[in-house]
Amino acid sequence: MSQHDFNIANQTPASFRSDLNGALAALATLSSGASAPATTYSYMLWYDTTNDVLKIRDDSDTIWISLFSFNQSTNTVTVAESVVESYLLGVSQTWQNLSGSRVFGTSYQNTTGKPISVSVEGNASSSFQVSTDEVTWITLGGIGPSTYIVPDDYYYRQTGTGSPTLWVELR
What we know:
Blueprint: H1 13-28, E1 45-48, E2 53-57, E3 64-71, E4 76-79, H2 81-87, E5 95-97, E6 108-109, E7 116-121, E8 127-131, E9 138-142, E10 146-150, E11 155-158, E12 166-170
Antiparallel strand pairs: 1-2, 2-3, 3-4, 5-12, 6-11, 7-10, 7-12, 8-9, 8-11
């Protein structure tokens, strides 16, 4: 178990070597310890030895996110529920009828933090598309009744003009 601030100060060669070895030991042991490291960084890993949980610091360096729980006596690992839920379609999601607020030819972005399912019906000459950047679009299929999976942070649209007869999303 070792923790370090990962700041190697300007110092004598012997102190530098000791400081560097301490930083490398902390890195090799995932900054493990009974309490969180005093100095944190975005995406930093920490093995919480009190609870046997591997955690990662969020991108804004404000909270720890639990990734895995370890049972040292049975040598088993469990994925943290919050991690599983962020990738599973349908978990903590409901179908929402967005027919009145969606228009063909307009792009929307999935910002829910997890994949969504989209089902659209309407203009027979249109197609459903997804994009990571709103520049390059990939056509997934024609007009429904079809259901498409849209990953988190992806853009999606139904080409064509007019309004859909039905636009529902599992979000």
